[in-house]
Design a protein that fits this description.
Elements lengths: L1 H33 L15 H11 L10 H19 L16 H22 L3 H32 L4 H7 L4 H4 L1 H14 L11 H4 L9 H26 L12 H22 L5 H30 L1
Helix pairs in contact: 1-10, 1-11, 2-10, 3-4, 3-10, 4-5, 4-10, 5-6, 5-8, 5-12, 8-10, 8-12, 10-11
Length: 316
């Protein structure tokens, strides 16, 4: 019982802290890359209190429910958007024995849970009673259907290579030459993951120049902040899953007792890469987004899966 409580508390603390750290990192990385001065002033040294200032701002704002909205769905949408990522964090192993829940079908569980989080955006767009929010919600649905397939196919390739759906088993089966063998799948997985999270350059559902702010147009205060936290939590989950599947998880110099340090460092590097992509690439048009998915990522993911199957038959 005590071990269960410790694991639950550990997942809860990680869920409350890591998205905030990613949010703070995004402020600072973007400030350096784009020469932004504002995020470097709050609190003095290096703008350390910028995230605190943002939190105070959201708390002070009133949470308004539009008169034409479906009130119950409108209010539940932010919760539906953020909770699946908390459930996902529970299955990501940091080191041998350091995991909220070591599931035999951990990869299947994570992929299923991550897809549920997008329902929050769909609910928000439908329930807001705003045509621009509805249009943003429909764009979420189209984007999800397009990028879910390459996302799952590339992850399935790793499961085939490792011979297990257990995330711990995948890390134990990993070896350095996978960085070459599974590289196309890793690129597809990362790009599709960005699209699943609606991160730039795949932020068509929240294209402010076209649909104001998509499904989130009518949200204010803490409800809007929950959508932002869901995005940052999604970055942590995507970075953690990329680390486990493709970068060897806790594999690194030294004993397994310090393996969690390598996992955390790899997650941090992938998270910074997600932020860098936001700054470096412009938003895709709707037709470019769909073309990339169906004519680019899906064929590469299928080819990777086929090559992995051939490799397993020949070398294992």
């Amino acid at each position: 019982m005590l071990e269960f409580v410790v694991r639950v508390l550990g997942v809860l603390v990680a869920f409350l802290v890591t998205p905030l750290l990613v949010g703070q990192a995004e402020h600072k990385v973007m400030a350096h890359m784009q020469s932004r001065l504002g995020p470097m002033y709050a609190g003095g040294f290096h703008g350390w209190a910028q995230l605190v200032a943002d939190g105070v701002k959201f708390i002070q704002k009133e949470s308004v429910t539009p008169a034409a909205a479906d009130k119950r769905v409108f209010e539940w949408a932010p919760i539906v958007a953020i909770l699946p990522y908390m459930a996902a964090m529970a299955a990501i192993p940091l080191a041998p024995g350091i995991v909220g829940a070591d599931l035999d079908s951990g990869l299947f569980y994570l992929l299923a849970v991550m897809s549920v989080g997008v329902l929050g955006s769909l609910m928000a767009g439908w329930a807001s009673g705003n045509k621009y929010s509805l249009l943003g919600g429909l764009r979420v649905a189209a984007q999800l259907m397009s990028y879910e397939l390459p996302f799952v196919l590339s992850a399935a390739s790793v499961a085939v290579a490792a011979g297990t759906l257990s995330l711990t088993g995948i890390v134990e089966a990993w070896n350095p030459w996978w960085l070459l063998w599974q590289l196309p799948g890793m690129v597809v997985f990362f790009i599709a993951g960005l699209a699943e999270l609606q991160r730039p350059p795949f932020d068509m559902p929240v294209a402010d120049s076209e649909v104001i702010f998509g499904p989130y147009t009518e949200y204010t205060g803490l409800r809007f902040a929950m959508f932002l936290l869901a995005e940052y939590a999604g970055i942590v989950v995507l970075a953690g899953l990329t680390t486990v599947l493709y970068l060897g998880g806790w594999s690194g110099p030294g004993p397994d007792s310090i393996g969690w340090i390598w996992t955390v460092l790899k997650i941090a590097v992938v998270s910074v890469l997600v932020i860098w992509v936001r700054v470096a690439f412009p938003r895709l048009r709707a037709d470019q987004l769909q073309k990339l998915a169906w004519q680019g990522l899906v064929p590469v993911a299928l080819l990777q899966l086929a090559l992995t199957g051939i490799g397993v038959v020949i070398f294992y």
